[in-house]
């Protein structure tokens, strides 16, 4: 362990699991491939395993760290090459982070806040080049799931509306200290260009998707009965007798236009 961190223990309340295996650190860094001059923002740098690689590639990085002890060590270790923001990434006003600059966002996201944080980051999707995150494997599988899959659901639809997503590879528990009880996966998220997005009322879209998947075994006719009539569902070109898991993302957009 690096100097200054000998006494630091992973804190459960922050969902900390530190990446330590050089093989996996190198593989993740290669997948991200930071280049000189790029603005890299890392969420939860921890003990800087990935941070060092980001700085080596881009020359400089910005990091968001909630743990005060780690933040103090990071500032001391990277006085000139790391801009540190000491806060909770979920509470951060992301519009204030390098405004007017295209960002590349990376991070080993704590499992307990992964979904809300992914939604929170949508607020800056229009100026993000890409996002590379390490998450619990089952979360990544849900994110990239296709219609008809058992794990296709609200997270799949909401994120796939905004991003092109690709599962890169799995990372075993032994790559971390302490070792988590689950396998992790790396996901790449590339925001779609504005002209590629179907116009949508986000609140209506979110309500439709949430209601449709709230009780997965219900048909759309029953699941959406408080939001849409059977006729409205038919007007969207959709069979009211199917279940939500059968519908592609754009079908939910069409339904939201009838709400």
From TrEMBL:
Subcellular location: Cytoplasm
Keyword Secreted in annotation: no
Record field: catalytic activity: adenosine(1518)/adenosine(1519) in 16S rRNA + 4 S-adenosyl-L-methionine = N(6)-dimethyladenosine(1518)/N(6)-dimethyladenosine(1519) in 16S rRNA + 4 S-adenosyl-L-homocysteine + 4 H(+)
Record-level GO cellular component terms: cytosol
UniProt-annotated binding residues for S-adenosyl-L-methionine: 17, 19, 44, 65, 88, 108
Enzyme class: transferase
Key words, A-Z: Cytoplasm, Methyltransferase, RNA-binding, rRNA processing, S-adenosyl-L-methionine, Transferase
MF terms in GO: 16S rRNA (adenine(1518)-N(6)/adenine(1519)-N(6))-dimethyltransferase activity; RNA binding
Gene3D superfamilies (alphabetical): Ribosomal RNA adenine dimethylase-like, domain 2, Vaccinia Virus protein VP39
Residue ranges of every copy of the Ribosomal RNA adenine methylase transferase N-terminal domain listed in the record: 24-193
InterPro entries listed in its UniProt record: KsgA/Erm (IPR001737), rRNA_Ade_diMease-like_C (IPR023165), rRNA_Ade_methylase_Trfase_N (IPR020598), rRNA_adenine_dimethylase (IPR011530), SAM-dependent_MTases_sf (IPR029063)
Keyword hit for Repeat: no
EC number: 2.1.1.182
Function: Specifically dimethylates two adjacent adenosines (A1518 and A1519) in the loop of a conserved hairpin near the 3'-end of 16S rRNA in the 30S particle. May play a critical role in biogenesis of 30S subunits.
Similarity section: Belongs to the class I-like SAM-binding methyltransferase superfamily. rRNA adenine N(6)-methyltransferase family. RsmA subfamily.
Name under which the protein is recorded: Ribosomal RNA small subunit methyltransferase A
